[in-house]
Amino acid sequence: MSRSVQQTDWLPISKKEVEARGWEELDVILFSGDAYVDHPAFGPAVIGRIIEQEGLRVAVVPQPNWRDDLRDFRKLGKPRLFFGVTSGCMDSMVNHYTANRRLRSNDAYTPGGESGYRPDRATTVYTQILKRLFPDVPVIIGGIEASLRRVTHYDYWDDELKPSILEDSGADLLVYGMGEQPLKIILDLLKRGVPFSSLTTIPQTAFMQSSDEPLPKNRNWNTVELASHGKCLRSKRDFAANFKVIEQESNKVHADRIVQNIGTRTLVLNPPTPPMSEEQIDASFDLPFTRLPHPRYQKRGTIPAYDMIKFSVNMHRGCFGGCSFCTISAHQGKFIASRSKESIMKEVDAITTMEEFRGTISDLGGPSANMYRLVGKDQSICDRCVSPSCIHPVVCHNLDTNHKHMVDIYREVDNHPKVKHAFVGSGIRYDLLVQENADAETQASHDEYMEQVVTRHVSGRLKVAPEHTADETLKLMRKPSFKKFHRFKDNFERICQKNNMNQQLVPYFISSHPGSSIEDMAELAAETKEMGFQLEQVQDLTPTPMTVATVIYYSGYHPYTLKPISTPKTRTEKLAQRKFFFWYKAENHDWIRRTLTKANRQDLLDRLLPRTPKKTGSPQSSRSSQRSGPPPRQKRSKKQARQRSNHRSKPTRQRK
After folding, report:
1. Alpha-carbon distance 545 to 557, whole Å?
2. Comparing C-alpha atoms, which of 49, 372, 390, 355 is closest to residue 253?
3. Tens-digit pLDDT profile for residues 352-411
4. 3-state per-residue secondary structure call for 532-588
5. Would you place residue 655 in the very low, low, confident or very high pLDDT band (cuts 50, 70, 90)?
6. In the CATH scheme, what is the homologous superfamily, with its name and number, of domain 2-269?
7. Strand spans (E) along 229-310
8. pLDDT in tens, 208-233
9. Thinking of the domain 311-459, which architecture would CATH place it in?
10. pLDDT at residue 261 above 60?
């Protein structure tokens, strides 16, 4: 093992390891759908370390076998306080299936990338087994799968509305969002002898009770009632209307308690805790992680998700973008919780001592790389805000978007004697960097940030996500006008040219989003073609619970206006949207001609497939990117390319 760590430095995962610590009984046992990686980017490790810090005896059962005699669920016995259950760092259904509901052949959170080590709907499956084996032991569920299914939600994979995961799983308590703060309150009360059944007023938790019981008293909370689960089943419009309440209350500083009737029981959803302070988030990241997978996996291969982040640093949590298709704010919240510079540099120091470290930090970022320490100028305005986004439809006048703190940290890491390169691998919100009406100091920080990132922290490719080009679709997405991407691209190319650099700009797009028509996709293809992009990767919308896009996809209504919105749903419609991304493939040309001719859009057809080929040649870029700086080498002739291809093996298709 590297860095002179001992097996006892990890949380125990077997009976033998529990006994090695001299423990005869455990206080808490955690079940996870992921392999156990003792790293701050892996939620089960964070939860386990917090429980340990509170002086309690905790063990982890990673990826238990749910298909045999259930020995993995029995092997550590019965905990004194409760079982904790999570599907892991990913929703198990997103982990298992593509946007077309096809089964994936790998699992990034399993050694060797092997699939089949967790069930569909892992949180529910694990909980039902534990309640069957140990009916008298409370079960707390958490993580992104539980968090996004805390109320009535649309399940894309079964194509139906489902009630709260508390109802289906039989769990006793749900901790939603980032769980450190509510967990500490729970542990403190349990250590003081408070019965588990009395944990009914913990912020950021949810539970079920009989509908004829009075609600637990809390004079600081108002209560708002959603349309019942039964009513949602009967009316898609009522289901859509629910979401506006859920999203707004999830992102308010002073939120209301939410209740919803489900049959003869009532779901009680307590308001979230305030955003974590710098001291609180530092405490979470500074826990004594080994930063390594458990030694039991050494002979099974690497864990892809760990390999991707082992030399990266997460600087903050939360995202105030509020994108309609994204679940980050639904789980982490819209307010940014930022670590201190000292905590970040402490993690950088730890990374540089790792055995495999060769001088490159792969990412200095977060959910969006350039939101670190961006906060409201006047907190009282934020306290009253109900908007799900701080930057749509325009950047809020109260948001301080000065990037000086990020530049300061980038330079500090750059100057670390053991760091050769420090890249920004997270996506950047480019609309923050082409902000209109920014004051002189803020604008100067934006320019400095761009210069610093492009010249020092791009490993050849800078990722940004315009997602679409059509204004109406972008409004539904809560994304900025594509005009801002043009401005950002111009700035990027200017910096590359000034510094004689050959960098790529990599834009990401989504197909089949609500409101996106065939003609919109043709326009997207034409405009990106004219900008020099040749798109090779596209993300088809995957409807996941707790997003505006998913509510529209299922119900046909926008939850904020309750106006009808059309959405591509069938396989034929989705495939048609995707085909325009690949306008340059000969097999799509006839279809494109027929489709645009039928739509009477000869203008788009001429832009995509001109009748007289232009002499300027085809775009120079690939993989959804465009290269800036000095021109690339001259391309081979078609004959040379054919000759060369005869000596190549057939490439494998890349999974989308």
Report:
1. 15
2. 390
3. 999 999 999 999 999 999 999 999 999 999 999 999 999 999 999 999 999 999 999 999
4. CCCCCCCEECCCCCCCHHHHHHHHCECCCCCCECCCCCCHHHHHHHHHHHHCCCHHH
5. very low
6. Cobalamin-binding domain (3.40.50.280)
7. 257-262, 265-269, 292-293
8. 999 999 999 999 999 999 999 999 99
9. 2-Layer Sandwich (3.30)
10. yes
> Coil, strand or helix: which one is 139?
strand
Instruction: Please give the Cα distance from 311 to 341 (Å, whole number).
Output: 17
Please give the structure tokens belonging to residue 327.
């679940």
pLDDT (tens digit per residue) in 54-98: 999 999 999 999 999 999 999 999 999 999 999 999 999 999 999
Q: Of how many residues is the chain composed?
A: 656
Q: How many CA atoms lie within 13 A of 259 on its CB side?
A: 18
Looking at the DSSP bridge assignments, the partners of residue 462 are: 505
Q: What are the backbone dihedrals phi and psi of residue 39, each rounded to the nearest 5 degrees, phi first?
A: -145, 145
For residue 599, CA distances in Å to 317, 517, 523, 570, 573 come to 45, 11, 13, 19, 15
DSSP-derived secondary structure letter, 491:
H
Q: Give the number of other Cβ atoms within 10 Å of residue 411's Cβ.
A: 12
Q: Let me know if the fold of 2-269 is the same as that of 311-459.
A: no
- Residue 2: strand, helix, or coil: helix
Cα 640 to chain centroid, rounded = 44
Query: Quick check: 317 and 366 in contact, CB under 8 A?
Result: yes
Per the DSSP assignment, residues forming a β-bridge with 313 are 364
In the three-class reduction of DSSP (H, G, I as helix; E, B as strand; rest coil), residue 167 is classed as helix
Please, are residues 292 and 330 in contact by the beta-carbon 8 Å criterion?
no
Domain ranges (residues) in the chain: 2-269, 311-459, 486-629
